[in-house]
Each structure stands twice: as C-alpha cells, then as structure tokens.
Amino acid sequence: MDTSSFTGSVALVEDGMVVSEVVARLRASHSEALLPIVNEVLERASTTLTDVDLLAVGTGPGSFTGVRIALATAKGFRLVTGKPLVGVPSLDALAAAAVGARGPLAAVLDARRDEVFVALYHATAQGRDILLPPTHGTPEAMGALVRQTAGNTELLAIGDLSAALWDRFTHGAGNGITVLPSVAGTPLARFVAHEALSGLHPRDDGRLEPLYVRPSDAKLPTR
C-alpha cells in the first residue's frame, strides 16, 4: 500500500502479477479512506489479510499524514497476522515504474511548499544504484543538483509534477533531462509490492520509521 501522495493505492500482487488493485484520490483523511480500500482489494481477489504472505508499505517521502497512517496501518496488520513487513521508499517505487530505463534516472515528487522531493539512480538491466539519496529543494535547485550529480550528462526523469514544476525542474538542469511519460495518478502500491518482492529492501525488525526527508509542517507546541 502507498498513501504518500493524494493518490493513494493498495495492490495485491502474486507471482509478479497484479491480482487486485484500487486507486483513490484521498480527499478525506487518509485514516478514513485506507481501510475500506484494503478491504475492497481483498474482496475483489476473494481472499483475506491472513492469506497474504508479505506486507509492503511506502515509507515516504510524501504526505506526512499519509505516510504516517499507512505505516501505522501496516504495522497493525503485521501484529494481527504475524506476516513479515517490508518498507519501500516511495521514490524507489516511483523509479521502479520507469520500466526499461537505463542510465541516470531521477525520481521526483511534488513536496508542496514550492519544493520537490528527488532521488537519483543509475538504472541497469540488473537493478538500480543510488547516486543521490532522497532530498528536497526548489525545482530549479533540484534539477541542477541531479544534473551535476549525474556528471552533467543526459538523464531521464519520472514523477508526478504539474507542467509548471516540470518546466522549472528541467530549466534548472539546463534542459538536459528527458521527462518520461506522465505517471500522474499511477498506483505506486503495485511498484511498492514489486520492490518488496525483489529482496532489495530488508524486512522490518520493529524499527521501521517514516522517511520524511524534511521536517513536518506540524509543530509540537512549546511548553
């Protein structure tokens, strides 16, 4: 499951194939929307949560509320079922959506507050190496950073940004970026599942935490 953006999704994957999947625009609170989506996915597949062998959840960055609630829900499922849980960074799942990409690949998400979240990978037929861990900044600054990190070579980018943010991001990179077809509304849950099944991410040992990348907008009151 993944609720790191306003487009939340839950998927059931078996032998690498998506068996059941629900995507929802989360306009209500994530906590109210997530459990019904999980139930619908299971009902469509005529199965139950206890039949699932592996649980996977997107850990962010993204919506602070969404990431926190998805992680809490997944941990609750693990306690109830006793099944293993794998956390997958949302930018890793986004990069996995660039099927067949080779070379430098930037995964980009709208971080609000006039910023984007970004990570840079080197994609090969065998997988991906991280060139730049998840970070955040203005679209122009992040475009320049990924281009510099990639050695000022041409690179690919995939993400869920408005046209205006993409223009600023590519301009910052000196227009040395090829933006892959839009993944706006793409259900990241299926790629979270694929990443979890790949064995590239460790199973939770009880210390899985959200990957916020930047401080939350919500501040605790001072005493």
From TrEMBL:
The keyword Transport does not apply. The lineage of its organism: Bacteria, Deltaproteobacteria, environmental samples. Transmembrane segments: none annotated. Keywords: Hydrolase, Protease. This is Peptidase M22, glycoprotease. One of its GO terms (molecular function) is peptidase activity. GO terms for cellular component: cytosol. It holds the Pfam family TsaD. Residues 28-142 form the Gcp-like domain. It comes from the Bacteria. It comes from uncultured delta proteobacterium. GO terms for biological process: proteolysis; tRNA threonylcarbamoyladenosine modification.
